[in-house]
């Protein structure tokens, strides 16, 4: 089927099976490798992107659900060549260890701040619980988000 969607501000048109996970469209069709495959079952959050301003698990979002929609990935989170404040904070706080889950972590944090610019520590912890990190970087993640809020 023909699917058109906007990705990081660019209109994209694809001829693709409608049930193809958005994750593979982003990575394989559009070359946006920042969004990662973790569990493939909607459980870990590594594949988190924004669809129409909401965080979604792209591994379990059929591309037909994104038709006509506005997708933002980690590559499109900053403005032009400027990093998003959260990306700067991630660097400042040395958050990543292996780094694999971090784009999903940042996309979830970015949605939190877009919907609640001044979250409490408890709200940050609650918002980030769906994103797993096998290296256990959770305390640095919370500190980095708090530094953007402060
Ligand atoms: Fe999508 Fe784990 S890869 S939630």
Q: Would you mind describing this structure in some detail?
A:
The protein folds into two domains: 2-76, Beta-grasp domain (Ubiquitin-like (UB roll)), CATH 3.10.20.30; 85-149, [2Fe-2S]-binding domain (DNA polymerase, domain 1). With 150 residues, it is α+β, with helices and mostly antiparallel strands. The chain contains five helices and five strands; from the N terminus they run ββαβββαααα. Helix 2 crosses helix 5 (138-149). It is globular and about 45 Å long. The relative contact order is 0.16. The mean pLDDT is 97. The structure holds FE2/S2 (inorganic) cluster. The site of FE2/S2 (inorganic) cluster has 12 residues, from loops.
List keywords for this structure.
DNA polymerase, domain 1; alpha+beta; binds FE2/S2 (inorganic) cluster; five-stranded mixed β-sheet
Rg (CA only): 15 Å
Assign a percent range to the helix content. Answer: 25-40%
Number of strands: 5
Distance between the termini: 47 Å
Biggest sheet features: 5 strands, mixed
Task: Please write out the topology.
Elements: E1 2-7, E2 10-15, H1 22-29, E3 48-51, E4 54-57, E5 70-72, H2 85-92, H3 102-115, H4 121-128, H5 138-149
Parallel strand pairs: 1-5
Antiparallel strand pairs: 1-2, 3-4, 3-5
Helix pairs in contact: 2-5
The structure holds FE2/S2 (inorganic) cluster.
């Amino acid at each position: 089927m023909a699917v058109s969607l906007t990705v990081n501000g660019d209109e994209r048109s694809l001829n693709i099976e409608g049930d193809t996970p958005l994750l593979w469209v982003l990575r394989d069709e559009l070359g946006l490798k920042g969004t990662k495959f973790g569990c493939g079952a909607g459980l870990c959050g590594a594949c988190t992107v924004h669809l129409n301003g909401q965080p979604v698990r792209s591994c379990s979002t059929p591309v037909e659900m994104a038709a006509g929609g506005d997708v933002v990935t980690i590559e499109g989170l900053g403005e032009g060549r400027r990093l998003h404040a959260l990306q700067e904070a991630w660097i400042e706080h040395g958050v990543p260890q292996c780094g694999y889950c971090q784009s999903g972590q940042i996309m979830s944090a970015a949605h939190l701040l877009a919907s609640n610019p001044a979250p409490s520590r408890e709200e940050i912890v609650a918002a980030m619980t769906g994103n797993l990190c096998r290296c256990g970087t959770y305390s640095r993640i919370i500190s980095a988000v708090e530094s953007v809020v402060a």
